[in-house]
# Entry
Amino acid sequence: MEFNHIEYKKPVYKIKANLKDHLRQYSRLDNLPITYEDLVHFTDLIPLEDDEGKKTLWHLAIYKQDELQALSKALVEVYQKLVSDGDTIPYLRIDRIDFCSFGNSQPFRIRVVNEINDNYDHFYVKRADSSRIYGLELEEIFSPNRVNYLVDNQTLVEDHVVGIPVDDFILKNKTIKIENRLRLAKEFVKFNERCFVRLLGDMRAYNFVVEITQDFDNIQYRLIAMDFDQQSFEGRMNIYRPQFYKDNIELVKLVQEVMSIEMATQYQRIERVAMKKRFFASKRRTRSLLRIMKKDIVSTKKNVEILKSELAVFHKNNSFLELKTMGDLLNKHLEISLKIEILSKAT
# Structure
C-alpha cells in the first residue's frame, strides 16, 4: 500500500467564459438568489456529534434571526431550482444550516424539511472552481451515476449523494461478513478503474459512498464519488487510483480474497467498455468539455510535468511528453484507455 500526499489547499481556479458557455448550454448555469459568501456571515458555530456522541467535522451555523429568515427563504428557492426547475414546492422550510471547514470547498450543508410529512432532504452550497465543475461534468458523462448541480458565478449548489460514506461502512462491518461480498469487490474494481481513466483523485474512503439495494434475494452495491475537488490536479499517477490509499485497504483485501487477477482484469475491461459507450451517448458534450479543458489551467506546471512523465511510462507512449495542460493529458489518457478518438489532432 502506497502513501500519496494530497494538496489540501489546492488553488481556486476561476470559472472562465468558455466553461460558463458550456454550463449554460447544458442547463447548469442559473441566477441563484443566494451566494456562498452570503452564508459565511454566521455569528457562531456549534460542534455537531454523530449518533455515538463523537465530534464530527460539521458545525451548526448560527445566524441573527432577521438574517436567518432571509437566508431560509432564498435557500428554499435554490432547492426548488435544483430539484424542480424552479417550480414551487409548498410547505418547505430550512431546518438547519451546517458548515464544514475541512477541505477546499468548505461546504454548507442545508437540510430542507417538508412540513406535510416531515421528510427531509439535503443539498450543499460550496465555493465553485473549475476543477470541481470539470469533475462533476466528467462524472455525469463517464459514470453510471447522474449528478445534479447548479452554478452561479463562484457559487456551486450540489444535490445530496445518497449512500453511506465508505469509511463508516467499513468501520460498522469490520467484524461482520457482509452479504454478496463478490459484488462489492467487483464494484470497487470498477470504481477504481473509472477514477483512474477519468483522472479523479483523492478517492479515500470518506470521499465516496456505498449505495445498498435489495435485489430479489440478494444485496447489491454501488460505489459513488461525492467529492470532485481533485479532478485532474495532482501530479502522481497513483493518486488517481483508489486502490493505493490506506483508507481503502479493507476493500483491497476483499478484492484479493474473492477475486483472481484474471477476474479483476475482466471487470476492468468491462468498465472501460461501459465508459466508451457512455462517451458515444454524450459525444457532443464530452468534446465541448474537453475542448475547453485543454485550454484551461486547472493545475500547476509541476504537476503537469510529473503526470505526463508517469503516463508516458504507463502507456509506453512518449507523445504525452509533448502535452502542455491537464486537459491535454486527460484527453490523451481517455483516448488510449478507451480506444476512441475524442478530439481530432487539429482541435
